[in-house]
Every structure is written in C-alpha cells, then in structure tokens.
TrEMBL record:
It comes from the Eukaryota. This is NADH:flavin oxidoreductase/NADH oxidase N-terminal domain-containing protein. It comes from Octactis speculum. GO terms for cellular component: cytosol. The keyword Nucleotide-binding does not apply. Its cofactor is FMN. Belongs to the NADH:flavin oxidoreductase/NADH oxidase family. GO terms for molecular function: FMN binding; oxidoreductase activity, acting on the CH-CH group of donors, NAD or NADP as acceptor. Keywords: Oxidoreductase.
Length: 579
C-alpha cells in the first residue's frame, strides 16, 4: 500500500529536474521526460499504416514532454521490419494524422522518426535487394512476413543513383511527416541502420566520396540532414546517434573520433536536438571508451556555439540518472523506452513517488498483433467506483480531485474483488496502484494528501480540512433520516439550520477557510452540502430550503465554485426519483 506520507513527500520539481518544463526554440515541453522511439509492430502489412491501437498507445503516453514515434520507414525499400509503419504514402499520412491529432488533444508533442534500415532489411518484405554503404551482410537471421526467420542477404553497395534516389525519399517522407501533423522529425542515424552504416568504419568500406576518410563517411548523413531541412525547419529537426551500440554488429575503435565529428557536424545545422544513446543496457561494443552525455554536450556546443541545440540522453535511464544528467547540465531531456512500455503514466509516477510496473516480457515488445503487452498496461491513476449518475458520498472526493488537479478515473461498476477493500460491499470504493480503500472520509483525505495543488498545505490546514469534512459527514447522516423517511420539511430544515449555522460560525469574514488563494477540502465540503444532489440537494428541494440565509456560507460557495481550479465544474443537480 502507498502511504500518504510517501506521496506527500514526493519530490518537487525543484528536486526533480526531469519534471521541470523546458522552453526551447519556440516549443514548450511540459517536462523533460520523453517516450523513446520503440519499434512495436502492429501496423498494417504491406500498407504500413498505423491504426486505432497506435492512437491509444501514443495518447496513453502523451503526458511526457515529447513523443518520438517508433521508427517509421521513409520508403518501401527502407521499411524492412515486418508490420512497422511508413510515412511515404497518402494513406499512411492520413492514418498518422489521427494519431498526432489525438496526442495534441492531450497536450502532447510528437516527432516522427525517419528510418531507412539499409542492410538490416530483406527482399521478402520489399521485393528488392537491401541497400547499404558496402556489400557486407549481417550474420544471423532477420524476421520477415508472419515472423518467419531468414538469413540476412548481402546488400547492394549504393551507387550515386541509389544515393540520389534515397535522398529524394527522405525529402518526401519529411514532407509527409509534416502533412501528418507531427511537430517535427528525428533522423534515425543509429543502431546499425543505413546512416549508421555509412558513418562507421566497421560497415563502410567504400573508397569513393562516401567512404575512406572521416569527412567522406559523414557526407551521406550531412546530405540527408540538408534535404530534410528543405521540408522541416532546423528548429523542428532532431537526429539520433548510438556511439556505444553493438546492435547489428556495430562499433569500432575509432567511434569516439567518428561521433565527435558526427555530432559536431549535425549540431552545426542548428538542429533542435541531438539524441545520443549513451546508456549501455542496449549492448556495448567495448571497442573504445563509453561515449557520455558530458562528451555529447561538449561536441554539440563546438558544432553550435549559440547553445540552441539541445541534448537528449537515451538507453537505460531512470528517474535518478535523468535528474543527475539534467541537473549537471549534460542533457536537457531524456527519452525512456522499456519503462514507458509498462508505465504509460511514467512522468506522473516519477512525480508522485509511485513504484513502476515491471517491464513487459520480450515477446510483448513487438511480436503480437493485438493490444496484448501494448495498450493493456494501466495507469496508476486513482479510480473511484460509485453509483451513477449521482455521486452521493463520492461527491466531495470528485470535488477534491478536480480542485486539487488530481487525475481521477470514474467508474459506475463495483469491483469484483470487493473483499480486498475491507468493505461490506457499499460504494464508494477507491483504488490507486496497489492501494484499495473503502470509507468516503478516508478516501477524501487520501486524495487531498496527494493532490498536486494541495501539496503545500500545513498539518494544521489539513486538520481543518478534515474537520469540515467530518461536519459534512455528520450532516449527511442527519439529513438522510427525514429525507428517506417521512420527508418532513421542518425536520429537514432543522438539520440544515444546525449544520450550516455551525459552519457559518467557523468561516472567516472573507476568503477561503484556510486563508489560501485557492479552495481546499474545507471549502469544498461546504460546496458539497449546499450544491450537490444526493442527499443534500434532494433535501434542499424537498424542504424548499435556502442556504443563502447564511451570508458567509453563500459567499464561500460562490467564491469556491467560481475559482479557476474547479474549471467550470458543475454540481450534479438532476432530479432523481422525482424529487
């Protein structure tokens, strides 16, 4: 179970640099934690179109500072992964537009990763021999249609004509990405795919203008950047490198020199960001020293001295390592992959000090064609179960979550494992991660203790909140007796006179109960009595009662309901049972 002490002491943004907003090049990133590009499959084949699963997957993860799409093929020949999406046809653009619109509706930012697999593809998937810097095949097997394994093929060393055609494909894909509503693009120059095959000496054995010297090996990458920038401005363009990676037989003794030059060259175009896979959990070639984010920052600043190119760290980062690297100035943001798969609300879990769900099993990463292991991971969002359409005892809980900026899932169905709540079976019931609770008063206090807007309240203020909530609870029991009995108007009136009179005596002459500039649970409890439907509102209607006879009560209700933190929240005043 999660104690209120734990959640109340969750690190603030000041101690959590990764949760601070980042204003950069005209873009507001709401925090510095992004979803890394993760190839998860599930697109249509051979069309390469995303679908409703992708819409749900990305919107579930839109609370991060940014989303980098899964690797997305720039052409049929570049899209050599079974059921990976593309971004080169009108049909693909239309499908991606649904995804980006949904992400934007949730306040997210999304960038399309432009991908050409080079020698890592297979002719079974696109009908032609794969392309690469040199005719050097990978060892082992590649997955083709229906997850069949076949040996890698010997690629064709690209001619000048092949290079020109591929540059045209990058240009078209970038144009398509912008038409699909992406906020920008990321050029995939990592993990042994086509651009990386040109950069590294282990895969580039050319003796022409695209090989041999370091400057020649950088040439294709620079030409790709230049053609991408004809369709997407530099302030919306990123690039990704993997100087440490052993994936797909990459890595060399000269990688430090190679990637110093590559990062300087890329930053020289004043790109929005350079993302470097500095971590080692994806596999380290061990042929030279580890490439660090500190080294990345140095070379980014050499390439772009005005500091307008951000650094993004990737691979194996945790909240602790993200805070360390960002706090030290080595990175501006981090992208998280595997933990984000099973924790769609990862930034919120970081913020609230909640435990992370275990990473999914490897088969769930991309081998399925359905929701399993993809969109089936729940958020740690609190869930409130109550009778609909009126909230009853749950109404103050809803008000607390709304005013406290605590996201709340609402459900009209009773959980099946009712015994786990230590409840005789009555609603409301409440879940938050592993915590299960009954009793509305306890739920109210818990939600108030973890609500972001109430984090600064003192112990005394919280005690006053609890006092008003207890008065509300006593009033509920008192008004329910005549309301559900003989409906005697005088008896109902007497109850309201007693409890609202008590509240009137406690209220300050003006302002909110706790003296803050925003309403807290004490104010919301008064609103609950005066405006919610069941049972208070029903009693007010039956008795024809006017709570406005108490001037301070009436003023507090108006002040609270008009506050921006309630965001137009409307009390449920529908007539139920004809009352």
């Amino acid at each position: 179970n999660i104690s209120s002490d734990t959640t109340m002491s969750a690190l603030t943004a000041a101690a959590n640099p990764c949760l601070e907003p980042f204003e950069h090049r005209g873009i507001t990133f709401k925090n510095r934690v992004g979803l890394a590009p993760l190839t998860r499959g599930r697109a249509s084949y051979p069309e390469g179109c995303v679908n409703d699963l992708h819409v749900k997957y990305y919107t579930q993860r839109s609370s991060g500072g940014f989303i980098l799409s899964e690797a997305t093929g720039i052409s049929r020949r570049g899209q050599g992964w079974y059921k990976a999406p593309g971004i080169y046809t009108d049909e693909q653009v239309a499908a991606w537009k649904i995804v980006t619109d949904a992400v934007h509706n949730e306040g997210g930012k999304m960038f399309c990763q432009l991908w050409h697999m080079g020698r890592a593809g297979h002719s079974d998937l696109f009908g032609d021999v794969p392309l690469s810097a040199s005719a050097l095949p990978l060892s082992g097997e590649v997955t083709v249609e229906n997850h069949v394994k076949k040996p890698y093929e010997t690629p064709k060393a690209m001619t000048d004509e092949d290079i020109a055609a591929t540059l045209a494909e990058y240009k078209n894909a970038t144009k398509c990405a912008m038409a699909a509503g992406f906020d920008g693009v990321e050029i995939h120059s990592a993990n042994g795919y086509l651009l990386d095959q040109f950069l590294q000496t282990c895969s580039n054995k050319r003796e022409d203008g695209y090989g041999g010297t370091l400057e020649n090996r950088l040439r294709f990458m620079k030409e790709v950047i230049e053609v991408v920038l004809t369709e997407c401005p530099a302030e919306r363009t990123m690039i990704r490198f993997s100087p440490n990676g052993a994936f797909q037989e990459m890595g060399g003794e000269d990688n430090l020199e190679t990637f110093d030059a590559a990062i300087q060259a890329a930053a020289g175009y004043k790109l929005l960001a350079v993302e470097v896979m500095d971590g080692l959990t994806f596999g380290f070639h061990e042929k030279c020293a580890q490439y660090t984010l500190e080294r990345t920052r140095k070379n980014v600043n050499i390439g772009n001295p005005d500091g307008s190119t951000a650094v993004i760290g990737n691979v194996g980062h945790t909240q602790e390592s993200a805070n360390k690297e960002i706090g030290a100035g080595n990175a501006d943001m981090v992208s998280i992959g595997r933990d984000y798969m099973s924790n769609p609300d990862l930034p919120e879990r970081y913020r609230d000090g909640l435990p992370l769900a275990p990473q999914p099993a490897y088969p769930d990463w991309w081998t399925h064609e359905d929701a399993q292991g993809y969109t089936t991971f729940p958020k740690a969002t609190p869930t409130l179960h109550y009778f609909g359409p009126f909230a009853g005892r749950a109404e103050l809980i809803r008000l607390v979550c709304k005013a406290g900026a605590l996201e709340l899932e609402e459900c009209y169905e009773k959980p099946t494992d009712i015994a786990a709540f230590a409840s005789p079976g009555s609603l409301p019931l409440f879940t938050h991660n592993t915590l299960k609770m009954a009793q509305s008063g306890a739920i109210e206090m818990y939600c108030a203790s973890i609500a972001p807007n109430f984090a600064s309240l003192s112990v005394g203020q919280r005690a006053k909140d609890q006092m008003f909530a207890c008065i509300k609870e006593e009033a509920l029991a008192a008004v329910a007796k005549p309301l559900f009995g003989e409906k005697n108007k005088d008896d109902i009136t007497a109850v309201f006179d007693k409890y609202l009179g008590m509240i009137e005596a406690y209220l300050p002459a003006e302002g909110f109960v706790n003296g803050e500039s925003f309403p807290t649970m004490a104010d919301l409890a008064v609103v609950n009595i005066c405006t919610s439907y069941m049972p208070y509102g029903a009693g007010i209607k039956v008795a024809g009662y006017d709570y406005k006879k108490f001037a301070k009560v009436a003023a507090l209700v108006d002040l609270t309901m008009g506050h921006e933190n309630l965001g137009g929240y409307a009390a449920n005043d529908i007539a139920v049972f004809g009352l």
